[in-house]
C-alpha cells in the first residue's frame, strides 16, 4: 500500500512540476512578446536610421524565428514590405536626417536587398545623407552598402567582391557503390533537380541554364555597384577578377571604399555631419524600432490583403512553409471577407508537391471570380511556385527572381543491391497484379515505371495548360520555354512568363487601382502566431528533431535527406526547382 501511495504522490509531483515548467515558459514568452512589440519608441531629433547586423529581413510572416528555441534571439525579423514603408516614411520625417548601413552580412534574399537598395536610392532624392561602413563585408552586404553617398571601410577590413559561382554535387557513384537504386521519371531536359542521381557531371543543358541565370543576376547587381561607385565596367571586372576588395588599401585605390577609418571615427564623422557637439549623443534608431515608432493606421476601412506564401509546397497542415490545407483556409477566408477588396499573392517558393500546388491554384481561381488577384514574386517562384501563380490578373516579378521551371519529376529510391549484398531479400504476396508495384527492397516494376511516367507526363500537360490560359500563348510556345528551364525575372518578362518587373509595393498599388480604391489599408496574411501557440508548436517532437538535424547538417543537406527518407515526399510527383542561388 505504501508503494502505491508513493507512486501516486510521485506522479502528482511530476505533473505539478511539468505544469510549472509550462507556466514558466508561457510567462517568459508573454514578457518577450510584450518587449518585442513595444510601441512606445520615440524618434529623437537628428536621428539616423540604421540598418545593422541585427536587421533580419523576411519575405513572409511564416519565416519569423520565434518561440522557446529562439528565446535569446534579440534580432527581430522585419517584413520587407514594412522595411520599404519605413524608408519611404523616413524620407519626409524631419527627425530622420540620414541612413547608416552598418552590416557586414545581411540575412535577406537577393530580391529583398534589391528592393531595399532601390528604396534607399529613392530616399537620397530627399537630400538627406546615406553612409555605409564595413569591417568584413560580404558581397550581398556590399551590394546594399554601395548605394551610399560614401562607403567607409575598417583599416584592417575587407570586401568580399568575387562574382557568382555555383557548385553542383553528384551522388550517382555513391549510390552505385553502396547499392542504392534510384528510379527517376521526369519531363524536361532542363529539370535538373534529379541530375545528381543520374550523372557524374553537369549536363550541357543544366550548364547552359546555370550560366545564363548567374550572368543575368550578376549583370543586374554588378552594373548597379559599378554605377554607384562610378567605376568603369571594364575596370570593375578587373577589380572583381583580381579580388582587390580583399585588401583594404586596394579597396581604397580602386574606389570600392572612400576612406579607411575605425568605427568610432565613423560615428564621429556622422556627428560632424549633423553638426553635433562632442558631448552630444549620436541618436541611431534601428529599422525595427523605427517601424514601431509610428502608430498604425486605422484598420477599419477597405483592405488590400497581402497573402504571403513562402517555402516549399506540401500537402496537409503546417505553418512554416506552404501547406495546402492551411492555404485553402486562408484563401477562402479572404474570399468571404467583404472588407478585403483585392488580394496580392506574394510567392517566394521553389515549388514542391504537384497535388498541393493544384489544390491551391483551384482555390485561387475561385477567389479571382470575386475580387482582383495580383501576384508578386520574391526570390523564387519556380515550378510549383510558378504553377500557383496561374490564377493571377497580373504577375509582377523582381529582375533577379528565379522563375519558370515548368517541368515535373518523380524520384524513387530503393535498396535492392545493398540488401542482397548483406543477405537481405524479400518475397511478396499480393492480391492484385500491381499491389506491390514499388518496394524499398525490390524497386519499381516495369509496369509501375510506365504508369508513373504517364502520371508525370499528364501532370506536365496540365501544368502547361494552365500556363497557356494565363499567359495567352500556345502549348508549343510554352513547351519551348518550359522543359524545366529556370529563368531570371528579366528573361521571364522578355519571353512572356510575367507581365511586369516590379516590387511588392507595385503589385499592391496595381491591385488597389484594379479594385478602384483610393484609400485603403494593407493587411498581411497569415497572421503571426501568438506566443502561446508558438510554445506548443515548438514542443512538437517531430519539429524538435527536425530542428536539431537541420542545425547540424544544414538546410540544403536536410532537404536532400528528406527526399530520400521521407516516404510522403518520395511518393509524390514533384514540381520543384532544382536549386537555389544565393549571393554571399
Automatic annotation (TrEMBL):
| Span of domain Peptidase S49 | 123-265, 366-517
Query: What is the top-level taxon of the source organism?
Result: Bacteria
Transmembrane stretches, by residue range?
A: 12-32
Q: Please name the InterPro entries in this protein's record.
A: ClpP/crotonase-like_dom_sf, Pept_S49_pIV, Pept_S49_SppA, Peptidase_S49, S49_SppA_67K_type_N, S49_SppA_C
Alphabetically list the UniProt keywords: Hydrolase, Membrane, Protease, Serine protease, Transmembrane, Transmembrane helix
The places in or outside the cell where this protein is found are:
Membrane
PANTHER family xref list: PEPTIDASE S49 DOMAIN-CONTAINING PROTEIN, PROTEASE 4
The record's annotation in NCBIfam families points to: SppA_67K, SppA_dom
Descriptive protein name: Signal peptide peptidase SppA
Amino acid at each position: 500500500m505504501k508503494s502505491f501511495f508513493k507512486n501516486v504522490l510521485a506522479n502528482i509531483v511530476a505533473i505539478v512540476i511539468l505544469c510549472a515548467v509550462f507556466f514558466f515558459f508561457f510567462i517568459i514568452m508573454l514578457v518577450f512578446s510584450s518587449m518585442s512589440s513595444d510601441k512606445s519608441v520615440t524618434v529623437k531629433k537628428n536621428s539616423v536610421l540604421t540598418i545593422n547586423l541585427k536587421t533580419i529581413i523576411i519575405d513572409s510572416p511564416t519565416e519569423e524565428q520565434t518561440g522557446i528555441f529562439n528565446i535569446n534571439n534579440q534580432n527581430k525579423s522585419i517584413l520587407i514590405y514594412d522595411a520599404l514603408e519605413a524608408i519611404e516614411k523616413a524620407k519626409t520625417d524631419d527627425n530622420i536626417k540620414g541612413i547608416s548601413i552598418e552590416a557586414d552580412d545581411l540575412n535577406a534574399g537577393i530580391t529583398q536587398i534589391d528592393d531595399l537598395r532601390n528604396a534607399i536610392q529613392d530616399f537620397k532624392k530627399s537630400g538627406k545623407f546615406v553612409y555605409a561602413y564595413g569591417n568584413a563585408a560580404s558581397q550581398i552586404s556590399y551590394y546594399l552598402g554601395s548605394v551610399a553617398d560614401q562607403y567607409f571601410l575598417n583599416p584592417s577590413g575587407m570586401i568580399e567582391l568575387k562574382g557568382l559561382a555555383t557548385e553542383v554535387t553528384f551522388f550517382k557513384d555513391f549510390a552505385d557503390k553502396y547499392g542504392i537504386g534510384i528510379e527517376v521519371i521526369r519531363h524536361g531536359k532542363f529539370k535538373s533537380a534529379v541530375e545528381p542521381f543520374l550523372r557524374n557531371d553537369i549536363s550541357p543543358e543544366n550548364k547552359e541554364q546555370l550560366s545564363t541565370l548567374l550572368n543575368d543576376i550578376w549583370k543586374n547587381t554588378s552594373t548597379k555597384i559599378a554605377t554607384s561607385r562610378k567605376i568603369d565596367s571594364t575596370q570593375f571586372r578587373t577589380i572583381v577578377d583580381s579580388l582587390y576588395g580583399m585588401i583594404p588599401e586596394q579597396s581604397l585605390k580602386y574606389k570600392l571604399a572612400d576612406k579607411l577609418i575605425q568605427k568610432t571615427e565613423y560615428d564621429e564623422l556622422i556627428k560632424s555631419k549633423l553638426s553635433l557637439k562632442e558631448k552630444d549623443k549620436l541618436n541611431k534608431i534601428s529599422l525595427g524600432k523605427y517601424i514601431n515608432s509610428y502608430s498604425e493606421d486605422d484598420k477599419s476601412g477597405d483592405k488590400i490583403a497581402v497573402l504571403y506564401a513562402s517555402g516549399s509546397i506540401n500537402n496537409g497542415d503546417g505553418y512554416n512553409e506552404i501547406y495546402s490545407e492551411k492555404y485553402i483556409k486562408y484563401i477562402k477566408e479572404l474570399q468571404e471577407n467583404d472588407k478585403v477588396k483585392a488580394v496580392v499573392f506574394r510567392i517566394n517558393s521553389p515549388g514542391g508537391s504537384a497535388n498541393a500546388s493544384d489544390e491551391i491554384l483551384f482555390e485561387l481561381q475561385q477567389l479571382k471570380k470575386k475580387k482582383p488577384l495580383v501576384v508578386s514574386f520574391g526570390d523564387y517562384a519556380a515550378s510549383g511556385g510558378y504553377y500557383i501563380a496561374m490564377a493571377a490578373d497580373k504577375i509582377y516579378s523582381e529582375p533577379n527572381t528565379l522563375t519558370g521551371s515548368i517541368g515535373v519529376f518523380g524520384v524513387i529510391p530503393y535498396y535492392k543491391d545493398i540488401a542482397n549484398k548483406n543477405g537481405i531479400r524479400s518475397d511478396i504476396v499480393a492480391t492484385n497484379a500491381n499491389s506491390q508495384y514499388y518496394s524499398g527492397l525490390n524497386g519499381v516494376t516495369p509496369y509501375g515505371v510506365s504508369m508513373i511516367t504517364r502520371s508525370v507526363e499528364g501532370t506536365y500537360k496540365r501544368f502547361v495548360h494552365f500556363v497557356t490560359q494565363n499567359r495567352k500563348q500556345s502549348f508549343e510556345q510554352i513547351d519551348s520555354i518550359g522543359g524545366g528551364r529556370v529563368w531570371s525575372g528579366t528573361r521571364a518578362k522578355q519571353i512572356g512568363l510575367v507581365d511586369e518587373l516590379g516590387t511588392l509595393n507595385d503589385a499592391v498599388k496595381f491591385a488597389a487601382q484594379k479594385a478602384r480604391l483610393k484609400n485603403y489599408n494593407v493587411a498581411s496574411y497569415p497572421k503571426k502566431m501568438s506566443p502561446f501557440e508558438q510554445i506548443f508548436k515548438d514542443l512538437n517532437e517531430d519539429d524538435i528533431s527536425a530542428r536539431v538535424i537541420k542545425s547540424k547538417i544544414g538546410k540544403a543537406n536536410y532537404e536532400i535527406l528528406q527526399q530520400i527518407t521521407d516516404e510522403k515526399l518520395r511518393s509524390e510527383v514533384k514540381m520543384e526547382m532544382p536549386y537555389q542561388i544565393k549571393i554571399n
